[in-house]
Structure formats: C-alpha cells, structure tokens
Structure to design on (404 residues):
C-alpha cells in the first residue's frame, strides 16, 4: 500500500502484513499492519519504523513522499521488534538524523544495534520538539506495554501517536475507522480492539486509566489517534478511549464462557447440560475447547464474559496440560472482576478441579464453590446435577455482575 495522508502533511508510510497468522504466539487471522508516520515540516520527522522484513516496503512509501535522506528526526515510541527493527535501514539512508527516544528505550535499542555513530536524544514526559510549524510533545507511558513506551502528540494537528495502545491486528486496504466500518463492520473493529487489549494490555488497566486521565488533563485532545497496528481512529477517536476506559474499569458482558479440555469426552459431556443450565437462567454462554481453539481466542472470550467455568479431566493427579497452560497464561495477564468455577471428570483420586480452584484463587479471582466432579462417564442423574450447577453458577454471575 502506498503512503496515505492522514492529515495535511502527515503521512502513513507503514506496511500491511496480510500473511502473518502467528504474532509472537497470538493468532492473527486477519494479519496486521506496522504503522509508521512521516511528518513533512521544516524538519522532516519519522515516527517509528516497521518490522525488519517490511523495511523495503516502508522505505518505498517514504520515498513516494520525500527522499529518505532528508529525514531529520526519528521518534521511537517503543523499541519492540515489530516497530524498531528497521531503524538501522532508516539510519543508513539518513545518517545525520537525530533519534528521539525515552531513556529506557535508548538503553534497550543499544542491545539491537551499534548506535555509536547515531545521534540520540532522550526525552521524558512534557519535553517538546519543534520541527517547524509543528511542535511534538512526548508523554512517557511506561509498561504500556513495555518499560520504554511513550506517546507523541502533535499539538497543531491534534494527532496522538500511541504505538501499540489503541491498535488492532487487522490487515486491511482501508486505513481509517470510518472506512473499515463501511468495508467490514464496526463490530469486527471492536472485537479486534478487545482481542488486543485482552491479550496484551489486560495487566495494565490501572495504568491505562491514569494515562487517559493524564492525556485529558494535559489537554492533549486527539482529533486523530494513530496507533502502530491496524486502523487509524479519525472518525471517532473517543470510541476507543471509552472502550479502554470501560475495559480498565472491569466492563464485561453478562455471559459465561465454558473453557475446557477433555481426553475421552466425559468433561465435554458435562459441558452440555452446564451450558443448558446457564441458558435456562437467560445468560449467553460460549463453549471453548482449548485444543481446538487458539490460546489468544480463548483469552479474548474469557475476558469478554463476566463468568468463566473451567473444565478439566484429571491426568496424573493434576490438571489437563492445555487447561493448566490456559490458566498460567491468564494468571500472567492479572485478570480482575471475573467470577470463576470449575468442573471435570476423573477416574480415581481426582485433583484437576481442586487445582483449577487453586489457580483461580491464586489470581485473586472470586470463585463459586464447590465445583462439580464426576467419576468417569456422567450418568443421567449427573447430567441433571450439571444442569443445576450451570443454573446456580449463572445466578451467581448475575448477582456478581450487578456490582459493576
Ligand atoms: C493417562 C491417564 C492418566 C490419568 N490419571 C488420573 C489420575 O491421576 N487421577 C484420576 O482421578 N484420574 C486419572 N485418569 C482418569 C481420567 O481422569 C478419567 O478417564 C476421566 O473420565 C477423563 O475425563 P475426559 O473424558 O473428560 O478426558 C487418567 C486417565 C488417563 C488416560
Ligand atoms: Fe509492542
Ligand atoms: Fe506492536
């Protein structure tokens, strides 16, 4: 895709990665983009670079606007590989450019490149850079989602460059929210925002709230939010700010996710009446078998629902490995404001359901106990008990949800 002007004199010069399906372990069924931006002013300024294997594409896009050797400043908002690993290619074309980067970013980037011949200036929150008619203001956003992360705000154009925050893994021929909502749908865009938040940003909810408040208190009103992945928010940047605020405040659907795995389908057989019980209380319910579902999708569905039931057979006294993997993954994301319970089939001593509860409590999540455990195959009576378990869990989810 060619350069696209997002505001007078400010161009998207990134690359669309239509083919990536595994983004450091997350499934990206729609691919992604690596967005970077070129500001044409007295001092031509590039905001971020792209993943190294897309450097040629980005350089071609820059060259369509201006000779890259004329770049005077390069702002690096985040040093992760997908945004900073073609910095050497840019610096080879514009060796006299000055790099603006946070202190932690500077230390990190030195692990990737020999920077001895590069001019680097470290910046912190509130620092500004005048590039001609425009002034750029920097705002550090540590741990959103890396220690070095920062936003760059163009005051005159009211464009906020936010690196990964507010991004989505969407490869598309469209660049803007309004275009994408027409070509695809608003629902798909929202789902991609939730997917990104759930898998990458879930641990940082409090920080997100603080940063949004800081952006507002500093008057960094954004007419355009330009992230480093996916669609640029120009029609309704407030929408994604509200979505982040809501998710950071614990917003979830009044629904239950059943997330399970099974060896011989007994735990799976239990999930059917449990789901019916949940439905009988009027709640939406989605059922996710872990080995049939990419991890990042299971995490997204967990995050969307107010309640989750974990189903696992016992294998060698403990949780089934795919269930343990899921719970370990979720624990790292430090979820809050979700109600949990567990069920499963076992043969002799059992152990999986107990361990599932231990894991949920270790995460600080509220639990509904006891869960339900059934030896080998569930009988019709067991299925009736599973139905009642589903009903009772759903009622408690409704009660818990009322607190939000
Ligand atoms: C390799 C293997 C190891 C197992 N280890 C245990 C165990 O340590 N404790 C236990 O209670 N059941 C154990 N079981 C029995 C299963 O938990 C039981 O077959 C259960 O019904 C399987 O549920 P599923 O059909 O949902 O996979 C084991 C089964 C297999 C195949
Ligand atoms: Fe990142
Ligand atoms: Fe990224």
């Amino acid at each position: 895709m060619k350069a696209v002007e997002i505001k007078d004199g400010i161009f998207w010069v990134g690359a669309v990665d239509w083919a990536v399906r595994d983004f450091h372990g997350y499934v990206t069924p729609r691919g992604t983009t690596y967005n970077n931006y070129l500001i044409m002013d007295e001092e031509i300024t590039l905001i971020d670079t792209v993943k190294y294997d897309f450097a040629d594409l980005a350089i071609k896009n820059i060259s369509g606007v201006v000779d890259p050797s004329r770049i005077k400043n390069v702002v690096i908002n985040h040093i992760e590989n997908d945004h900073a690993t073609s910095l050497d290619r840019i610096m080879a074309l514009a060796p006299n450019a000055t790099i603006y980067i946070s202190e932690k970013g500077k230390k990190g980037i030195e692990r990737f490149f020999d920077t001895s011949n590069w001019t680097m200036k470290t910046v912190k929150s509130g620092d500004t850079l005048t590039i001609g008619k425009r002034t750029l203001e920097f705002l550090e956003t540590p741990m959103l989602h890396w220690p070095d992360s920062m936003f760059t705000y163009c005051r005159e154009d009211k464009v906020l460059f936010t690196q990964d925050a507010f991004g989505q893994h969407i490869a598309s021929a469209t660049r803007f929210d309004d275009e994408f909502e027409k070509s695809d749908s608003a629902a798909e865009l929202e789902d991609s925002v939730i997917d990104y938040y759930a898998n990458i940003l879930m641990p940082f909810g409090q920080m997100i709230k603080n940063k949004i408040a800081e952006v507002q208190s500093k008057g960094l009103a954004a007419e355009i939010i330009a992230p480093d992945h996916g669609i640029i928010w120009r029609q309704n940047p407030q929408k994604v700010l509200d979505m982040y605020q809501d998710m950071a405040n614990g917003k979830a659907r009044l629904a239950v996710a059943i997330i399970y795995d099974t060896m011989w389908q007994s735990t799976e057989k239990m999930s059917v009446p449990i789901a019916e019980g949940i439905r009988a209380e009027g709640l939406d319910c989605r059922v996710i078998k872990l080995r049939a579902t990419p991890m990042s999708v299971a995490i997204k569905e967990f995050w969307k629902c107010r309640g989750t039931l974990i189903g696992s057979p016992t294998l060698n006294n403990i949780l089934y490995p795919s269930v343990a993997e899921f719970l370990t993954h979720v624990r790292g994301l430090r979820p809050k404001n979700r109600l949990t319970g567990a069920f499963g089939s076992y043969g002799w001593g059992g152990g999986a359901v107990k361990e599932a509860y231990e894991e949920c409590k270790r995460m600080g999540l509220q639990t509904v106990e006891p869960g339900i455990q059934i030896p080998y195959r569930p009988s019709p009576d067991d299925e009736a008990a599973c139905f009642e378990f589903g009903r009772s869990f759903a009622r408690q989810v409704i009660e818990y949800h009322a607190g939000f």
Remarks:
- The chain has a mean pLDDT of 96.
- The first strand starts at residue 4 and ends at 7.
